């Protein structure tokens, strides 16, 4: 029994879509393989760290170095605040030197926007840092926390491990979970109006302190 043109149409569309999709996928894969773009950067070791620092400073972030234990540096940076927020997965020893109140933001115990607005600072870890673009990426993991805690407080202290520094963007992307809520940070929040007057702190923290952690 022959089918009507109307009933056959969905099948034809599905077949055509499948065929073109397969061809497109194969073509895309071949193009990516032959593109010649860099998958790995040339900077390594201290040169890599210094490149990241140079970019961060250019973006008006404050950069600090620490060996093994960053708690003393963190305590100094947040010492003027009466209360700070940290994600539940942050190493507790990192804020032991802080004499004020430490609020822990955790699933089921999330701080409200008003509560976050009342915090002097937020302290988080990071997932990866890309040296050439001066970009730090948070991946919403337990040590990085949910996005809101790094957007509302006016001061963000972010710890970047040397082992998590890569040279170029493809290296950074390769380390990330594409399905995770990702936050890309390139310096403190800043924007400008039509007259090019710089305004800081509109879309996030006005102050960004980055601690480069060895070990």
Automatic annotation (TrEMBL):
**Which SUPFAM superfamilies does the annotation name?**
NagB/RpiA/CoA transferase-like
Per its UniProt entry, which superkingdom is the organism in?
A: Bacteria
Give every LUD domain span. Answer: 121-213
Region: Disordered; residue ranges are 1-27
Q: Where is the composition biased (Low complexity)?
A: 15-27
Q: Which InterPro entries match?
A: FTHF_cligase-like_sf, LUD_dom, NagB/RpiA_transferase-like
Which PANTHER family does this entry report, sorted A to Z? LACTATE UTILIZATION PROTEIN C (PTHR43682)
Name the chain's protein: LUD domain-containing protein
The protein's organism comes out as Brevibacterium linens
